[in-house]
Amino acid sequence: MLLLLSVSICISVSAATIKGTIIDKETGEPIVGAVIILENTKFGAATGLDGKYVIHNVPAGTYKLKIEYPSYEKYEKDVTLTEGQTVTLDSKIGANTHELKEVHIAGKYLKGSDEESQSREKNAKEIMNIMSARTIELSPDITVASVLQRVSGVSTESSNSGRQYAIIRGMDKKYNTTLVNGVKIPSPNDRDRYVPVDIFPAELLERLEVVKTLSPSMEGDATGGVVNMVMKNAPDKFEFDANFAVGYSAIFESQDFLKYNSSTVKWQAPSQLLPPGGYASVANFPINNLLTTPISNPLNTNYGFTIGNRYLKSKLGVVVSGSYQNTYKGYNSASYLPSTTEPPAASKNAPMIQTFSDLNYREISTLSQRLGLMTRVDYELSDKTSLSLFATAIALDEYRTRFTGDSTLGGSSLNTGYTGYAGNKTQIETRTTLQNIYNVTLQGKHKFASNFSGDLSLVASQAKEQMPDDATWAFTSKDSIDQNRNLIIGPPKVDNMHRQWLSNVDNDLATYLNLHYSPSFLRGLKLIEVGGLYRHKTRDNFHKDYKLTPNSTDPGQNDQPYTSLQNAQYVLLTAYDAQGTTHDPGIYTYTEDIVAAYIQLDYDVTSKLDLFGGVRMETTDGGYVSQLQASFPGASANYVYTDVLPSLQAKYTLNEKSAIRAAYFTSIYRPAYGDLVPFSNNTVYDDYSYVGNPYVQHTVVQNFDVRYELFPNSVTQFMVGAFSKILQNPIENTLDSVGIQPLNYGTAYNNGFELVLRRYFGNFGISGNYTFTNSQITTGKEIYYIGYDSVKKMTTSYTGTVNQTRPLVGQAANIGNISLLYKNPKSKINAQVAFVYTGERINFVSPYLNLDVWQKPVLTLDFSAEKGFGKHFTVYVKANNLLNSGFELFIKQPNQAAYSGAYRLRYQDSPNYVTVQKDFYKSTYLLGFKYKF
């Protein structure tokens, strides 16, 4: 054995090596997948993604080296090798003009490829980042929300449903806009303008664009950035793709999934079924949809397809694509509910102490059914005129069961600890949430002359959400602590039942007109564009809430013993309960008209310097009317304001591969419907009500950007840039005694820089980005303290206000993504290991000094891989959250007494901060099969 090893080592040392790089003779781009062989031998290799190849262990001698690649000229060269020699042989090969003479797509990138996306990114007027369909396909992600977390400067915010919203450059989700094929779509959320991007299956996309600077032709209400989902277009030849995958969530290895019968849910509230002014009875509230059934190890399934072609000599293009995802998700959560009032600090200079009234432990099971369908038809009527019709239907149905154990805390001080638990409530909720987005866009393009063209788009969109019979019931026990600190649990009693119905429909009609003129009267002026927008929006919101009380022997006391939900007896005590909430601000109609016009110019100052910019004007005329009594403040409101939004972008080309960009633009944020209407909604957050504020004003933002970019070849990039934003009247969510409420806060600043890198070394590559963001806003904070009244000669409590500087809500100072890549075209293997890091950020703002609620840093690890077989088949695997990363909230104040000892709080990790919430997740896995014709 030792002899064989020695011989092997000697052969390896004496053998020769051939290496080199193969590039396109015309473009200088690396050629991926070119085959290099030594004629009449078994030695050979294929070029990697950087165009490099290596042939090892070649015996000494003379060989004929051949390079072959489809549609390129064959290359041959004689090479002589000596023992131990390393020969570097770089080659430039050109296109085979004889083979390509009938083809007219030279220089055209494959749709959905990395090369196409990088070319668009390089040549775009705006500063943007693009992810190709191929990159998305190879990533561990199946929704657009998950894909977005891998884009430079983007993090995602999670909810009970998982990742849902994009936070771009530290700007809260409200400051970003979502487009489909460049057209704004409405949100199905009952309170917000921003779109939950997890509703979109990732496989419908041809590319995902994140635009970070606005031009005048773009709508002006995007400060952080614009998420533009470009859907699949008709292919150049027949294409049929299909995929199927099955997987599971690891959390259900240790607990069951709790399912309820959603078919028994009543879709309309009693008030919608009874005569006007009618009174509901207990019979109007059946309990079948509150009964749950455990399911062991449920399986997740995904299906998808795309079919398309071009007809009539390529004048007519048709593509249809669909995706269906059936996903079982679960997580467990422990959270402390802050008290509505805080005790005073020991003195003016002593810190205030956060107190808690309850500890909630939750187990949550959610079945998500995500359906996406899209079709696009385009037709060239003539050389000058073309029409396209795009239609999409997106649906996300979620069925959630939430089990909550609510322990009322005895005592209320982090200084002295908590003396125990005063009572327990067990609560079960079943919630059905159905979200839909529909969009139809008809666009016509016409060339009036060789230098004058225009396009007109007619857009009809609808977004709606239904939450029928969000039902909650509970039973309680009054507990106590004996002298030995043992918990004595009292007998269970039936507690209240709540049933509520919510729904909203947002109808959005818009017209876009753009005219493009290439003048010849001024040297350097390449393009003049003018255009405008008219949008009419109508949003109708419905809410009805009913309270059912246990039928007790002693009125006013919940003394009915609990045995089961089926045996519980309820009554509607008052007419108010039987009619549901009357004069409800949650029943309202919001209307809005937006009129916009713009002019923008594209001007080459020199052969290297290009200026692009202009001005946009937008007028907003909106308002709402609610069911509140007219005399109530905020029952209705109207808003009219006009904004002038200048923009200027410059690009200085250093050479063919590198450039410097700079940009300035003004943007706005329009308050959302829920920001304005004084409707207290408890479906937004688990532990707090969200209450609108009719007095908030819209936000105006000044934005500055600069970026250096380098594209050495079609798959390699390096970018570094900086940005600065000044926000007038930013809207921040503040946690106070009434719940979470939006408020305007003076002036805020948001500055940072970004770094993006992608590079391949043979078949291995690294792709990553890092963003540092430093935002600052100074607001008044309340202090409540004990002091000495020199006049009354006594100790009393005082309330005062001091200024505190903090980051913006949702802004993480550090965001990083790094992916380790392996791509082997010869063996058809692709693999990716992806890390995402999001630093700490404020989750809620407290009205009190130093009591803001922060989210802890999160590091996630995901993995994906695929292996191709033959020309048509691929097997793939995706694994997410391999580190079992969770979600944690904390307050930056010491809690030594509550951290340890007999009076400690549970789930505390450190005496240096207070853990407010911990959500526990586990990993998910998916194994799939793809067919491509």
Oligomer: single chain
Q: What is Rg?
A: 31 Å
The N- and C-terminal alpha carbons lie at a distance of 50 Å
How many distinct helices?
A: 9
CATH class of the largest domain: Mainly Beta
In total, the number of strands is 51
- Class from helix and strand fractions: mainly beta
Secondary-structure map with pairings?
Elements: H1 2-14, E1 16-24, E2 35-38, E3 44-46, E4 52-58, E5 61-68, E6 75-81, E7 86-88, E8 91-93, H2 97-100, H3 114-123, E9 128-132, H4 133-138, H5 144-148, E10 154-159, E11 162-168, E12 176-180, E13 183-184, E14 205-211, E15 225-231, E16 239-249, E17 257-260, H6 270-273, E18 292-295, E19 300-311, E20 316-338, E21 356-380, E22 385-410, E23 420-449, E24 452-478, E25 480-481, E26 487-488, E27 493-517, E28 525-550, E29 570-571, H7 575-579, E30 588-604, E31 609-626, E32 636-655, E33 658-669, H8 673-676, E34 680-681, E35 690-691, E36 699-713, E37 716-728, E38 731-736, E39 739-744, E40 747-761, E41 764-789, E42 794-806, E43 814-824, E44 829-838, E45 841-844, E46 853-855, E47 858-869, E48 873-880, E49 887-891, H9 896-899, E50 914-920, E51 924-932
